[in-house]
Amino acid sequence: MITLVLLNCSEKKEPKKTVSKEINKEKKVVKKKKEKKIEKRWDSLNYQNVESFLKEFGKQNQETRVIIKTKFGNIKLRLFNDVPLHRANFIFLTKIKYFNTTVFYRVAKDFVIQGGNSDHTYTLQQRRKYGNYLIKPEFKKHRTHKYGALSAARDWENNPNKLSSPFEFFIVHKRNGAHHLDGEHTVFGEVISGFDTMDKISRVEVGIDEWPITDVHMTVEILD
């Protein structure tokens, strides 16, 4: 079992709760072909080609700012370019709308809020679709688990290479940071606004497994 922010999907207790006419016709054909091409490219990601896929996707999708919308308010994040695999992965999952059916499934007050999982069928289908791939760590000495750091969750058991979960992430809510996690989890971004939203989420009632009694749903969108 992953301790602290280290829980992964398979070990997380299952919740109980309750993406002229001639001219118009030509345009439609072109658009349809383009969409088919993009879908085929996105479908090619799997556990065997993770690194090459994310490197290429990152070149074509260089966005670094995203927003997480919740009923408590918004959290704006900046993703770091010096951790290219993790940045590209988060942008990829945002663009296929994976996060939009997930929740903040773990809230540890004054420590972290953790998201990227849910009990929705779509969530499980997406994880299976891409083979539950993992990402190699991208540790940087200057990227620490300070207050507001965005980091990748991972399994601590049978994971000597400290591979990251691509689907689950956490945000450090501890004011003086959680630096015992430095070199253990890949920090790939930071909060740039919405600290008050983090505070509100941290105060929700949770069960013994730290899963909020009332789900905190999220919608993640790219800003630029």
Compact overview of the structure:
With 224 residues, this protein is α+β, with helices and mostly antiparallel strands. 28% of the residues lie in helices and 20% in strands.
Task: Characterize the structure shown.
There is one protein chain. β1 and β2 form a beta hairpin. An eight-stranded antiparallel beta sheet has the order 3-4-6-5-7-2-1-8. The termini are far apart. With 224 residues, the protein is of the alpha+beta class. Helices cover 28% and strands 20% of the residues. The protein has one domain: Cyclophilin-like (Cyclophilin), CATH 2.40.100. α2 crosses α3. Residues 5-40 have low confidence and may be disordered.
Q: Which secondary structure elements does this structure contain, and how are they paired or packed?
A:
Elements: H1 21-42, H2 50-60, E1 65-70, E2 73-79, H3 84-95, E3 103-108, E4 112-117, H4 121-129, E5 149-152, E6 169-172, E7 187-193, H5 195-202, E8 219-222
Antiparallel strand pairs: 1-2, 1-8, 2-7, 3-4, 4-6, 5-6, 5-7
Helix pairs in contact: 2-3
